[in-house]
Amino acid sequence: KIIPVIHLCGNVVWFSSDFLIKRVPYMVKIAVGNENITKYQKTYIVNLDKKIGNEISTLYLQVSTWMVRMESTLTNRADIRNILRTRTSLLMSGLRLAYEIGDIFKQYVYLHSYLRMPLNASKINVLCQCIEMLKAIYFTFHRRSALIGENISYMAQQVAYSLQRAF
User: What are the CA-CA distances from residue 6 to residues 11, 18, 40 (Å)?
Assistant: First the structure.
């Protein structure tokens, strides 16, 4: 009910509602109340139309902040452990931002395509801004690839250690 479309890979998407209606229709009736999922999907896309501008502007600020932090050298810190921790955190947050932006973009485009609803002309700029942010993240990673490559083994050890502590 919460996730109307799941992007698998490339241009492949999976609509869990279609799968559930075909395989276990009684669960759809229990979870949603009726088997007309299209109405819920249209309501979801209308709500997404209303809030996508604010979400993308918030993500734009986060990406801008991340890029500035990613370009900093961090040499003013005395401890190498803190530098590596900060670089690992920046690497992970950049990947998370790219995933969030791509997910919003794909949900918006695929749901409009699936439901045969036209894209609003006012939202084209927002979608282009998504692409712009993804390219900015990509090029920032590319510019900093030497630094990332230099420290990637230490970063992987740190992530593994923090995962071991969590579990």
Answer: 11, 12, 16
154 vs 151: CA distance, rounded Å: 5
Averaged over 14-30, what is the pLDDT?
Answer: 77
pLDDT of 152-163, one tens digit each? Answer: 998 899 889 989
Which of 147, 128, 127, 31 shows the shortest CA–CA distance to 87? 147
Q: What is the pLDDT of residue 82?
A: 84
The model's pTM is 0.84
* Rounded alpha-carbon distances, angstroms, from residue 52 to 25, 27, 122, 136: 31, 30, 11, 19
Give Cβ neighbours of residue 86 (< 8 Å, ≥ 6 apart): 74, 77
Kindly give, in sequence order, each residue whose CB lies less than 8 Å from that of residue 60, ignoring residues fewer than 6 positions away.
129, 133
